[in-house]
Amino acid sequence: MASDYSATHITVDNINPKVLKCEYAVRGEIVSIAQTLQQRLKDNPGSHPFDEVLSDILSFLDLLCTHSSDYVQILYCNIGNPQALAQQPITFFREVLALCDHPSILDKSETQGLFSADAIERAFQILEQIPGRATGAYSHSQGIKGLRDTIASGMGARDGFPADPNDLFLTDGASPAVHMMMQLLIRSENDGILCPIPQYPLYSASIALHGGTLVPYYLDEQTGWGLEISELEHQLKTAKSKGIDVRALVVINPGNPTGQVLGEANQREIVEFCRKEGLVLLADEVYQENVYVPDKKFHSFKKVSRSMGYGETDITLVSFQSVSKGFYGECGKRGGYMEITGFSPEVREQIYKLASVNLCSNISGQILASLIMSPPKVGDESYESFSAEKEAILSSLARRAKTLEDALNSLEGVTCNRAEGAMYLFPCINLPDKAIKAAEAAKTAPDAFYAKHLLNATGIVVVPGSGFRQVPGTWHFRCTILPQEEKIPAIVSRLTEFHKKFMDEFRG
Amino acid sequence: MASDYSATHITVDNINPKVLKCEYAVRGEIVSIAQTLQQRLKDNPGSHPFDEVLSDILSFLDLLCTHSSDYVQILYCNIGNPQALAQQPITFFREVLALCDHPSILDKSETQGLFSADAIERAFQILEQIPGRATGAYSHSQGIKGLRDTIASGMGARDGFPADPNDLFLTDGASPAVHMMMQLLIRSENDGILCPIPQYPLYSASIALHGGTLVPYYLDEQTGWGLEISELEHQLKTAKSKGIDVRALVVINPGNPTGQVLGEANQREIVEFCRKEGLVLLADEVYQENVYVPDKKFHSFKKVSRSMGYGETDITLVSFQSVSKGFYGECGKRGGYMEITGFSPEVREQIYKLASVNLCSNISGQILASLIMSPPKVGDESYESFSAEKEAILSSLARRAKTLEDALNSLEGVTCNRAEGAMYLFPCINLPDKAIKAAEAAKTAPDAFYAKHLLNATGIVVVPGSGFRQVPGTWHFRCTILPQEEKIPAIVSRLTEFHKKFMDEFRG
Fold first, then answer.
1. Cα gap A433→A431, rounded to integer Å
2. What positions does the domain Aminotransferase class I/classII large occupy (chains A, B) (predicted)?
3. For chain A, is the Cβ count within 10 Å smaller at the N or the C terminus?
């Protein structure tokens, strides 16, 4: 087949090898199986003991593309995509976006009947901040100044320390910001980036694409995925001994896929470590509004470092935020930003140049980023409905997390840490030798072997732990807490029934 | 100052040298001068013989950031940004976007009073194409399948040859698509990309960022910026003799900054050349709706190659399209796409992987991309108003192009080719030796020297030709045709008066 294309001269053997090396690990065989099942279900409903594929895969995207309304219903459990699981958007946010898209209706009388008064007022305010009220014009490459002012004051209110709008770069989701920093910091494979294991695959993919080296540090599952400084020191030392110039430390808080929330004392140690070692602290804080346990609270690394008395010239800190997570889950809007502090003016200029090559991020995403950092306040017409929508989503997520966590811990050989935050559970499965041998015979990782059996038997799709990396010899899978609450019991009973059968079969 | 940051360890000397090497040439000194002037005008209105800065700079973005309504009015003439110059968005497009952002108003009676019937109907159709009607969910990494179907049929109607929705990758504007192809094709500085000179700086910037080599080919100004195959052959041979592996040919049609529109016979020669040499043809076709002369017509390279009988396996062709240009000029929405044909399934998989690492492009931009390829049709309620809006914009642009072209050609020592398409004029200035010597003394390029004098005297900002590269020893500037039509006479008289004085001063 490929040979037909010989005339084109472009083959996998002569494209950029970094592209080949890059793995977006949560894609792959599981997805193909899920798609086949989905097709089969469409062709002969009832051909399987289940009528839904419960999928926790980043590449649910592949499923979406073949989805159409006449399909047997598919339940997308991908953690990053709440609105694909029927979560409704926050009304106030969408009102403002619609009005900014079509400002000519702002003055019409019918508009008062359709939109809340504060949404109309907010749209007027935002349009005033946009030169010429032109939502269809390129903006400043860092994002519209007035919107950055709003975001900065929201961050200041959150942290108790001021944020500078000139430190903010608005981006199409958080991913482009992560790529921009990797592009800035990585010169060659001798440059290393410390990343947590398990990690979110965006980091390994971006480091590979930019030709750097991922320097792993392991989170301690026994202590609820604790981040030990001794482990950071050990891995840094090991990397240096191999001639790796370690440039930055990635911390994901709340954690993906682990769901842990760092304690403030731990964060102080991390800041101290980065300052001492002169590492850029890349703080993935996109789940900052997703904390489910009363004994944990989100603290931004900016707040922690400033509360330690460290300022602009003491530590280099980058924080990533996104409109895709939180309680709003506006993944499709591709809004996000990074706050950069501790870079010299000369380096900032280079970062600005990188941003300017792509002109600017999409204006709707920029507006939404300002809205999540300045939601309706007490007294605003939308305040009560907004708060109700927010509370309903977050409290339901907390209940789902607890239910799934308990269910997983009740399974033979499965231990699961709390989902303190984010949107995931990452249980450890102690697989029988017979299952591991069977997996080896099938030339697949034991956790992928388990996940495939789970999918075939129940239609539940989870991501094998190997997609996120894990301590060698341990096996996990990532499971989202996002399915609609009324569907959780069915998921639990299917999973429980499957797991028992699987263990009986392979206990040997 | 920078030394204060020594603790941070990140300096311009130890970041990725490719970032340093990357130049976004239309930024720079001219912008700083414009900003200073703008500030001075704000502080003391009337301190200059002009009250507007007429700016044709990609980095008008810098100006935007300091703009606020209490400023003396600034007229943004940046070619890429019509809505920053008071061009109004197309009503039908914005109606549909607003309804898709806030679907819950679709069924309300007030909505019929505010939106056209076909916009409401179109919003329903589009929401039907989106799994779960979730405009806030990540989509397939190539874009929502239903929207790609719409775009593909629009392309099929345009070309008379079918387009496959699976060949389309929807992106946040065209720039990410260009970067994706450079990332795929460039392995090292030994890989070359043939680019027109003058060129749009996105290409030189992207090639530098990915570590490749720009192989220049010169457009022939004497023949209206003609693209000579002999020149392509000559430059390809020269590059090969230097050990450069030339992988692709970039063609911008209609041209930026030159404004030329290629003839179909010329396009056939280009296709034949790429096929013979096994080069990927990267066709920048973002100005496909911007053709102003009756004797020229846009033909996509896909149509041309298919009409020559060349199919999927004969030539590798990538076409870039954007919602930022055309008559709609929706730059801020960041919508666009590329059509890829002639890649083997294995290579396509790698391109898909690159797209999937960033999850998907923004959904509003995806919807807009489908709308520009399927506008209202005869019989639709919006058809007449839509056609009137479109015709008004395009006919006005044609008049502005002609007026400016004539004015420029009337200046001593200035020759300017027709703006057959796109949004620019790129006049050649025959500068007196005295001016060239003065420029050398001032350590600046002669065309930058001219542009600075023009800015200081009139407030008109143009981009020196050196920002786009040009035949050594020739001097140009890029001038947009986008200022509001009623302001063109003032621009012409200011420019004419300045030029006369400048020539008198330096004629020597």
1. 7
2. 132-494
3. N
Q: What is the mean pLDDT of each run of 10 residues along chain B (508 residues)?
A: 64 90 66 69 69 49 32 43 86 98 95 96 96 89 95 98 97 96 96 96 94 97 95 98 98 95 97 97 97 96 98 95 96 97 94 90 98 97 97 95 96 95 94 96 93 86 87 92 89 93 91
Which residues of chain A from 268 to 287 reach within 8 Å of chain B, CB to CB?
Answer: 275, 278-280
Residue after which a domain boundary falls, among B318, B343, B373: B373
Nearest of A389, A468, A380, A364 to residue A424 by alpha carbon: A468
ω into A254 cis (within 30 of 0): yes
- Contact indicator for A195, A217 with CB cutoff of 8 Å: yes
Beta bridge partners of B249: B194, B281
Of B20, B184, B332, the CB nearest to A138: B332
3-class DSSP assignment, residue B248: strand
Nearest CA in chain A to B106: A114
Q: At what angle do helices B175-185 and B345-357 cross, to 10 degrees?
A: 130
Report CB contact under 8 Å: A135, B99.
no
As a whole number of angstroms, the distance between CA A281 and CA B471 comes to 46
Distance CA B197, CA B216 (A): 6
Q: Can you tell me the distance from the alpha carbon of B276 to that of B274, in angstroms, rounded to the nearest whole number?
A: 5
Do A363 and A415 share a domain, yes or no? no
Tokens of A241: 């001994």
Residue-wise pLDDT for A138-173, tens only, equals: 998 999 999 999 999 999 999 999 999 999 999 999
Does residue A9 lie in a domain region? no
Bridge pairing between strands A424-425 and A477-480: antiparallel
CATH number of the domain that A502 lies in? 3.90.1150.10
Q: How far is B132 from chain A (nearest CA, A)?
A: 6
Instruction: Note whether ipTM > 0.85 here.
Output: yes
Q: How many CB atoms lie within 10 A of CB B201?
A: 22
Last residue of a domain, one of A373, A397, A414: A373
Structural domain contains residue A1: no
> Comparing C-alpha atoms, which of B296, B332, B302 is closest to residue B420?
B296
Peptide bond into A176 cis (omega under 30): no
Longest dimension (CA), chain A: 74
Give strand pairing partners of B319: B283, B339
Q: Is B486 helix (H, G, I), strand (E, B) or coil?
A: helix
A-B contacts at Cβ under 8 angstroms: 371
